[in-house]
Amino acid sequence: MDSIVVLIIIGFLIGTLGTMIGAGGGFILVPFMLLAFPSFSAEVITAVSIAVVAANATSGSAAYVRSKRVDFKAGIIFAVCTIPGSILGVITTQYIPRGAFDLLFGVILIGLAVFLFFRGGKRKLSDKDVVSHKSWVRQKIVDNHGVEYDFSYNLRLGMLISVVVGYFSPLLGIGGGIIHVPAMVQWLHFPVHIATATSHFVLAIMATVSVIVHAIHGVYNDPAVLRMTMSLIVGVIAGAQLGAYLSGKVRGNFIIKALAISLGLVGIRILVSGL
């Protein structure tokens, strides 16, 4: 019972932070499992994480939809583009040795941390240049607090990024939001709060597809794995509601910086533990 309670609490914290920054929470859960369960294979770790991400994203998306910060047009198109990659990513996890998985995950986290800390949220083009470019789609969203978001994004580039995110999300078990959110802010010029909400919507669809593929492969047939997954999900669903609420109260730049620092610390810890 104690272990289940601990897992529920961990799930709650993951759901809160993951939803607040639109990253799904997998970037927290995977390092935790790498350190706490050294005997688990890469496939089991990613399967548990992606199931939790699916629950987190679904719960968080419901809250974001109520807040009217989801760009449904971009979200649906990006989600469809992630599906082929997510299926291939799940299959790939079966052939990655645990040591190589740890090294790959740690290096990617540190690289993303450095990029986000120094470049996250900085736009290369002015709003005028972006809007006037023919390949960019104009969008205007007004949330339920009356805040207006007027922005433009490159739909083709967004689709390409989504294909890549779709592959690496189940491969690493991190949900993809950790890549998608900064990409949407940095390269697609989404406002941070719209990016986090839309990314969560995409994650809900993409992660669910990955869970179905894992289930077909029988990963969740192990009672211990299933119990761990369900315990984390219970906590995540509740935490996601709090995370979505807090997201609207926190400055976008703070979200990006906090994400960068967290990623760097976790990446270093994983690499050190593997030495």
Structure explained in plain terms:
It is a single chain. With 275 residues, this protein is mainly alpha-helical. The chain has one domain (2-273). Helix content is 75%, strand content 5%. The chain is built from eleven helices and two strands; from the N terminus they run ααααααββααααα. It has helices spanning 2-21, 26-36, 42-67, 72-92, 98-119, 127-132, 155-172, 177-186, 192-216, 223-247, 252-273, and strands at 136-142, 148-154. Strands 1-2 form a two-stranded antiparallel sheet. A hairpin with a 5-residue loop joins strand 1 and strand 2 (148-154). Helix 2 (26-36) packs parallel to helix 11 and helix 3 packs parallel to helix 10 (223-247). The radius of gyration is 18 Å and the shape is globular. The two termini are 34 Å apart. Residues 124-132 have low confidence and may be disordered.
Structural class: mainly alpha
Mean pLDDT: 82
Structurally, how many domains make up the residues? Answer: 1
Task: Give the amount of beta strand, in percent.
Answer: 5-15%
Distance between the termini: 34 Å
Order of helices and strands: HHHHHHEEHHHHH
Task: Work out the radius of gyration.
Answer: 18 Å
- The helical percent reads over 70%
- Order of strands across the main sheet: 1-2
- Biggest beta sheet attributes: 2 strands, antiparallel
Extended strand count: 2
Low-confidence stretches: 124-132
The outline comes out as globular
Quaternary status: single chain
Question: If helices are DSSP runs of H or I spanning 4 or more residues, what is the number of helices?
Answer: 11
